[in-house]
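Fold this: 3-dehydroquinate dehydratase
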Amino acid sequence: MVRILVIHGPNLNLLGKREPEIYGTTTLADINRQLSELAKQYSVELDFIQSNHEGEIIDRIHTARESADGILINPGAYTHYSIAIRDALSAVSIPAVEVHLSNIHAREEFRKQSVVAPVVIGQISGFGEHSYALGLLALIEHLKRPGT
C-alpha cells in the first residue's frame, strides 16, 4: 500500500477562522477528511501532521524515510524562508508535492518566492481546499508510475 505523509505547516490549525477571505471557511479537519476519502479510492494510506514548529516538521520529514512513499506538504509561511525544511525534503529523497490554498504568486511580493519548490516534484496553489486534493492526485500518479 502506498503511504503518504501530509504535512500542514504553521497557522493551518486556524483554517476556517483565519482570514476566510483568503483561505476560505473550510477547516483543517474538513481537508483531512476529504483527503482521507480520496485516498481510500486509490488504496492509499495517509498520515497527518500539523505543526507550528519548524523543528517538529523537519523531524517528521526525517522519519518519513522509514514510513512514507511520498509527502504532501503545505509549509505555510515556511515556504518563503525555511532552508531547513527545504534541506530536509531534499535529504530524504522522497517525492513531495507542495500545496497552497491561495495563489502565492498573486499575493505580496515576499510570498512569490518558494525555497521549497526546487526540491519537490511540483507545486499546486490557488485552488483553495482543492489544492490539497489536486496535489494528492498528482503525487499518487507519480508514485504509481513504473520506475518511481
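The CA atoms of residues 58 and 84 lie 7 Å apart. The beta strands are 2-8, 44-50, 70-74, 96-100, 122-125.
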